[in-house]
Specification:
16% strand, globular, 9 helices
């Protein structure tokens, strides 16, 4: 075996390890969501979730940007959102949990609430009544501080990567603005960051 063949073989071994690791992570994430009552039934939502988890698997900077499926929001009559992007989870590390000054600032600062809705034509536009109900629901969510991104099911089906790219672009801007606000509050209260 020459060196080039050995390099290819080695690269294939590493790719298989990554593939196996990612596959088992996704399966355990889906099982965990089901055990927590957050089961992702829709195959289109599963595509979005898998693409999101793939991005996290490849980029550790996104690891703490937590995507919660089937999120029930108590401030809006417990409406279920397809996904909630939990930004506060990223901020409240163990270090901050035990630093009361930081904890008080973080928990008293309104954090962004970002929801993702993936609308299949079959369900969301089934009738005029269903369309009116969806519009009313969206108004209530927005009135309660939610920022929503809506995707047609066909968009996610055709190109889940583009939908997740768009979502990440949106969320990372919101996250940076929120972190900037926290840094300013920390500075005002003379808390080390």
């Amino acid at each position: 075996m020459n060196l080039v063949d050995r390099v290819r073989e080695f690269l294939n071994e590493k790719c298989k390890m990554l593939e196996t690791g990612f596959y088992s992570d996704i399966i355990s994430n889906l099982e965990e969501a089901t055990n927590l009552g957050e089961s992702i039934e829709s195959p289109i939502e599963q595509l979005f979730f898998i693409e999101w988890k793939f991005r996290q698997f490849c980029n550790s900077e996104l690891e703490l940007l937590y995507l919660e499926p089937q999120y029930s929001d108590p401030s809006t009559k417990n409406f279920i959102l397809d996904f909630y992007i939990n930004i506060i989870e990223e901020v409240l590390t163990w270090k901050e949990m035990f630093d009361l000054n930081k904890y008080d600032i973080i928990t008293s600062t309104p954090y962004p609430k970002v929801g993702i809705e993936i609308d299949s034509h079959i369900w969301h536009e089934k009738s005029k009544e269903q369309a009116m109900k969806d519009k009313k629901r969206e108004r209530i969510l927005i009135a309660n501080g939610w920022q929503l991104l809506r995707f047609a099911g066909s968009e996610v089906y055709k190109d889940p990567a583009r939908c997740v790219d768009e979502t990440l672009g949106f969320v990372l801007k919101i996250r940076e603005k929120y972190f900037k606000e926290l840094r300013e509050k920390f500075k005002d209260k003379k808390v080390k960051t």
